[in-house]
Specification:
single chain, about 220 residues, alpha+beta, 4-stranded mixed sheet, 9 helices, 6 strands, about 55% helix, globular
């Protein structure tokens, strides 16, 4: 008998630890198997909501935001690349040179959930940015990635050309900020239990098993 479990994965498509956390969470769910019937929802969070359309050089951005030296940035990139490799995600650090605004990507993800393809689009967007080095603020890129994820590319382009789902995305972003979420990924189980950060699969699995045992 599978126990239904609601999972809200609060994240941004420009967040490397969100890519790592998602792969780890999915590995944990695979290990748990039929004991859980997960209902996974991807919720919006913008790391850089005021970022302009042209984006910013990633080294410059990280130096400004976190005060990281080039050496510290190099160490961080290698740690992220290695963690990604462990969970089966490829970070092509040489292809990703800029940080971009991701609001349109979140609007598209909102639409994709209504279309029943949100998880597929989420994976495709993470890969487009981190593995292929594409621009997730480009509406042309977003529509093409949506098509590759099994959605109607023309319909995706229509959504992006409009202002559809902007209010809904802002409402969800505001809700999670009001709930105290200030960094991502933030994984919320059954609206009650919070697991923060790109944790290893074992951490997610242990928490999920405890929650299932108490259900």
């Amino acid at each position: 008998m599978s126990t239904p479990i609601k999972i809200d994965f609060v994240s941004d498509v420009s967040c490397p630890w969100c890519a790592i956390g998602l792969k780890s969470l999915e590995a944990a769910l695979a290990n748990i198997g039929t004991a859980a019937k997960p209902e996974l929802h991807f919720q919006p969070f913008e790391l850089n909501p005021k970022m302009g359309v042209e984006g910013q050089d990633i080294g410059e951005h990280i130096a400004e935001k976190y005060g990281a030296t080039p050496e510290q940035q190099a160490q961080s990139r290698e740690m992220i690349r290695a963690r990604g490799a462990e969970v089966g995600f490829t970070f092509s650090m040489d292809k990703r040179s800029r940080i971009y605004n991701t609001f349109d990507a979140h609007r598209l993800l909102h639409w994709a959930e209504l279309e029943g393809r949100q998880k597929e689009l989420k994976h495709a967007l993470l890969e487009a940015y981190f593995t292929q080095g594409e621009n997730p603020s480009s509406r042309e890129v977003l529509a093409r990635v949506a098509g590759a994820a099994g959605l109607d590319e023309a319909a995706a382009a229509e959504v992006l050309a409009s202002n559809r789902y902007a209010d809904e995305v802002r409402e969800r972003e505001h809700f999670y900020i009001q709930q105290g979420i200030s960094s991502v990924p933030a994984v919320i189980i059954n609206d009650r239990h919070l697991i923060s950060g790109g944790q290893p699969a074992e951490v997610f699995e242990q928490a999920l098993r405890q929650i299932l045992a108490a259900a």
